User: Fold this.
Amino acid sequence: MSFVFTHDQMIKEGQALGENALAYQRAVIVGGNAQIFSPLDDPEWPGVGTYVGRSIAFHYPNMSSDSRVDLSSVRITADMALLRYAQCDATPVKGQANQVRVPASCVTTRGIWVGDTVRFGGRSAEVMALVSEEETVGAGDSAKVVESKVLILSRNLSAEDRKAKTIAVELCLPLYGAEFTDVEVGPVFITMPAGVKLMTAEYAPHGSPAELPVVEATIRIEYKVWYSGLADRVRVVESENDLRRIMGDNVAVNDLKKAVSLAFANSGGMPVAYIAVANPDSLESWVASLNRVRHDYGIVPCSNDPAVLAAVEDLVEHRSRAESGRECVAWFSLPSPSTGVVADGNNSEDLEPLLAVVTETPDGKIVEVPTGNARFMAVGVRSGDVLRYGDGGYNEFVVDNVVNEDAIAVQGDIMVSSVPTKIEVWRKLDTDDLAASIADRAAAYQNKRIRAVWPNEVNDGHEILAGWHLCAALAGLRSGCVPHRDLTGVQLVGIDYVDIELFDEDQLDMMAECGVWLVMQGDDAAVTRRALTTAEHGDIITCNESVVTNLDSINKVLRTTLDQALHSTPGTKGFRSRVVTKLRTELNILAGRKTATSGAQLVAGEIDVVRRHVYLEDSLVLNVKLTIPQPAGYGLGLPAVEVHQRVIA
Assistant:
């Protein structure tokens, strides 16, 4: 990166023009509003109850009417659980209030150790010391030595127990940091069944860890909740106090709050909008929240779900139609797959699944697709790729070589079978493959309104953040910069470390040519490498992000002027000339409003036509020729670009 612009430089430039110049660029964050409740993070986190071996149900603490538990996040733990390894009758030692004698029958292969726990009469005591005793029972040939142990306990027996001839005791060992999986997790209750057992390496009577019954444990619950209270409408953050109104901590797991905070930090004080998704696991919830986003410009979904991204893309396309007049864009995080599919039903000859049989030949096992729809050679299957063989579950075998379009030889002990079975061929991606995979995902959009951002993980100095947090920072940055400001080489706030060093310059250039908006590590902060859309490379008007943003901003200004004129005195004498005069005034303002580094939004504007819409009687159509500045970061020294726009209001 030969030139870098600091974040402060860009924001001050935007502030110099005032809020009106930035009014149509507001970012909006859409995502789950979450909170983690965890005993690991809060030492004062209370237990929810005590498990003593019987079935019991626990409520989730800290729940409210607008919260829903993410069931996949639930963990049931105990700081310490007592596991019973023996039980027997013990004899109180006369004259000693805290000692009992345990017979040999209670001394297991593990033995008794200091620190073990003795349970008796509903109480527990720790073994503080041990004294071994031997007593000869009988005489002559029938005499035998009986071993016993005196346990010195951490607490006294009750007066009643001290008088008893024997008392029933359970010998237990402690398991610290226990986690329970044999539980029923529901949306309201967690139910632990009777007789739960845990495995511990401390008890291995046959050389390997064994399960023991849990007789006592103070249960703690870690879980994530999704809050739906902020999913009813779009809200705006204009200050740090507004940010604090978003539920939960400002951490990565709370997608919405973290993304909003990064967007606001980069916006230079410009407002940032947001709306929660009541249930991020539900596409219906996403669509409901997205449908409430009506006027904001830069939409950032906190998701990589293809169905969610498709819904966002549909929204952007629908809103950006000339008839709608509500241009907007979307910022998507591109994933980084470690493996990729090479051959399957999606690229077969007839787009049907690949069903193969396995035959034995003198040269080894051959996997062949009898229907002839595989195209192994055409799609580039090669030695070292991995064959996934099986319906539902699958086994993996390494491809040895490609025999022909419908047959491959594989390594490993694959069974001969004449039953057609589903197969796929996958590949572990090297850097070339990974760069191509990321580039292909961006290029597939072919849309000037989609910004496809990579990397998909960054660091804020405290924790790893998802790629959509990076998208939020970029959308916030755009909202605080003048529309025609090229964001190439601009620093980001709140992103401390970005790693794209696995790729060389040629690979990065190839990805950029396919529309990947790359963010790289600068000397002091994360820096945008090239500000791009996913439109076809080479078309300056559609593939450069700032040109698209600038034209959207100009269109909004002109449309607003037309709209106001249409609803004032349409049809009166001189109406059309007044409209033209107002439009020219706005064009002059756009051309005259300049900054030291970026110049004006508009070099020149010429009105061709103002007329009523042929079909929409309450609409006006404006044809205008605009000359706009070309971003210096895209092609230094090139002239301004002439654009013919059609605006409907």
Observations:
- The two ends are 42 Å apart (CA to CA).
- The chain has four domains: 7-33+229-335+434-528, 49-226, 339-428, 551-648.
- The first strand starts at residue 27 and ends at 31.
- The chain has 13 helices and 35 strands.
